[in-house]
């Protein structure tokens, strides 16, 4: 029987707070750096429920998903293995607190994002900012 090596489904959540701020987590595990809250989808779990769960686990925030933004699938996006990430835009209130595998959770102005972003989250956030400012989505 052949071994199938399929990409792993993941979700990421761009959590918007008032004042044009978004939430990022500082990862406790390699690769370390700042990242969007997110993680692996559990077997039998819908993508939207996974995004809500991961956001809560890593930031303590109850999020309301506003829209599914884009799915990122570059095989090199995660240095650990091939993953597919479906990204959601969400809203929340309150202040985040890092938990689970997040060493820290913090809000950032969209104009002052950290440089040490993990995975392809710099690309995701650049696409998000373009979308918020122009209404144009990333092209396939």
TrEMBL record:
Name of the protein this chain belongs to: NUDIX family hydrolase
Example GO molecular function: hydrolase activity
UniProt keywords, alphabetically: Hydrolase
Keyword Cytoplasm on entry: no
InterPro entries, per database record: Nudix_hydrolase, NUDIX_hydrolase-like_dom_sf, NUDIX_hydrolase_CS, NUDIX_hydrolase_dom
Residue ranges the record marks as coiled coil: none
Domain Nudix hydrolase intervals: 6-131
The keyword Ribonucleoprotein belongs to this UniProt entry's keyword annotation: no
Family: Belongs to the Nudix hydrolase family.
Organism: Corallococcus coralloides (strain ATCC 25202 / DSM 2259 / NBRC 100086 / M2)
